[in-house]
Amino acid sequence: MKNIQYQMIALCLLFLVAGQVQGQDAVDKKQAKKEAKAAKKNKVPEKGDIYLSPLPVIGANPALGFIYGAGLAASWYMGDPKTTKISSALAGLAFTTLNQTVFTIKSTAYTENNNIILMGDWRFLNSSQPTWGLGTGPQSAKLVSNGFEFNDGISEGIDGAQMMEYKFIRFYQTALKKVNEGFYAGIGIHFDRFYDVNDQLLDVANGDITSYYAYNEAYGFDNESTTLVGLSLNGIYDTRDNQNNPYKGRYAYASFKMNPAFIGSEKSSTTLWLEYRDYFSLTPDNHKNILAFWTWGNFSTSGDLPYLLLPAIGYDQFAKSGRPYAQGRFRGQNMVYAETEFRRHVWGTDKNPDLIGMIAYFNITTASASDNDIKLFGEINKGYGLGVRINISKKARTNLGVDYGWGDYGTQGVYIRLNETF
Hints:
By secondary structure, the chain is mainly beta.
């Protein structure tokens, strides 16, 4: 009997010790997991590190209906972060209740030691967009009939937005080699194709002439599809410390694009893109107050471009210019855009001192239209607004931005995006 009692006591002690060991193991595992998480969070960036920031895409506007989908900001290092700038890409897939699809991938990557810059802009759109004619200024200055005369006694230009449905493919890829510190030179290939174009308000039989149709008739372009294929010569000067959210440095970009008919363009043409960005810290001991500047010009230097591929607002690589106007709201043979933005960090935590920020911006746009006798800088349209920034990746400096803006002619708009506008 005593042996049985001893065995029972020993068995209980064994279970007690095992329970304590298991409990200690659970505590140790929890602590190890916590320490690993902290180590990962505080790890110094190194080659191969990737930072991903997903974001649901939700919105609505009269042209697209209800919009839903997903976006992703990816940042990574292709070399030692001490000698290699961070690379960045934005990808998005969105659908709408009007059966539209928008897919984009836009990227700027730096190889090891910043030896090569790779720039990409890939898009597929099954979408729609209104157009308002050519040039900046009030709509009354841009009526089709002002620049394109149809001497049939009935034709008349449409005043106001003219909705168009289309499918669009874009493939741009540019590679630039470092020439010396900060300066790069290289070449690019460019392919744009609009097809299945439905000019919804066009009714030639009743004399309702849209800007798109009038331009195509005047310059000899097809109304249902258009293709532009080009090669470019490019130069970049870049001393920014981070392309997602620069605190200092400057950026300059020049691109001369040749679109010869013998490689697939509908008509031969050339264009010139000039761009400059600069960043100034108003509090030199930190980055809490930054004044940023951005300007670009897009010029038709020879030949004629298809209507939908003329210089237009929002047609920059990341489609971020022109707040609060819709993409393509202003279009012309030549265009100049300028914007300034004040950025201020307003609140943070010990873990993320740059968590919350605010911005205020102001921009101007001018576009020419030779057929309507609208000169560059003859008419200027402005936009201005405020925004909030939430830092969602401290190491990559990725911000979620929500902006609201006001413009001429009662225009207003809200924008949700990843990374800074420029």
